[in-house]
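Q: How would the structure tokens look for this protein?
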Amino acid sequence: MDDINQQTDKTPRCNFCNRSQPLVKKLIAGPGGIYICDICIELAHTIVFAEKKQKEQKDEKTRFLLPFEINKLLDEYIIGQEDAKKKISVAVYNHYKRISYQNEKDDDVELTKSNILLIGPTGTGKTLMAQTLAKILSVPFAIADATTLTEAGYVGEDVENIVLKLFQASHGDIERTQKGIIYIDEIDKISRKGDSPSITRDVSGEGVQQALLKIIEGTIANVPPKGGRKHPQQEYIPIDTSDILFILGGSFIGLDSIISERVGKTSVGFNAGNFRRGIRNQDNIYGLIIPQDLIKYGLIPELVGRIPIVAMFSDLDKDDLVNILTKPKNALVKQFQKMFEMENTKLYFTKEALSSIASRSMEQKLGARGLRSIIEDLMLDIMFHIPSSKKTPLIKITKKMVEDKKLDYDSLKRGNGV
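A: Here is the predicted structure in token form.
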């Protein structure tokens, strides 16, 4: 019996699980007579890999994109506006770096939030810029029209309902809500009538600006979970807006005149004439903007102080519009081609046709915003008949078809556009 026990004791065993060699597939020997079996090796690998993956996910979650990375991603969706993209990339990077710094450091230095103001004509990509930022940063996004907002107690939409939209976009996650992006369009439409308080000012517009100011600079917004006007019986959700990035946009028609008037007054004599000739280009004029110009336009000084980053959006020319139709990841032409592929049909636009579509949008002064409606109207009859028609391998859209404004599917087939 003793001989059997001695023989058993000599059988190599795993020093981790004590399994003997016959019970495992592989028993690997180490220095000093130490053994480890294949089962324990696999278990150890699983533990190490899981911890590594968890750390990588945590690092990825806390990592924020660098300015050049943000700019590169914006390039995939937005054509032109290079100066605006660079300025916004830096501002967004600094915003989320600030949040990370404030959360990790116990420091006396408090970094203030830098919200962003986008100024430019309709259809130049202001709203798309804000939407794209939220997409590439994977943060919740909400959009509101400033003209629909009212100060508390008036008929209309409470300013705090903007935060509710963001809360809903984050599917009820308060932490994600507090790091989201809110875009407020048409901010210029709520400007008061003068740069100093008077009985002639737009009291309603100034009241909305004051209400917005509290949320933009950072406050605890008591949000009604079901929306609508507040009432005493409703329970509120407290949301801290201190780390929400606010992007405000507007066309600010007439702002260039305010800037021109200011720089004209500060320049005299021969040099003034040369200077005026040098700023006739609207883009150059907007490059000279200072906070006082926005105050003179009608934004209250406190609000101007909370939006230190001002990015200018210039008018798009025909080449820009053609590029918007074809180059971005979600370009309109690519979208329509994808839809026609689903019907086993290849859709093709000639260069001249694309140029003609761009020209029509410029004539209507709609910028990039008008491109989709032009193509939708153009393709309506085709999209109506294609699903029920016999297989159509190719549809080619020419300049003449665009100039005729609407395409008839039967005439398109007769004209060999199919």
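The mean pLDDT is 81.

The chain is about 50% helix and 10% strand.

Upvote if useful.
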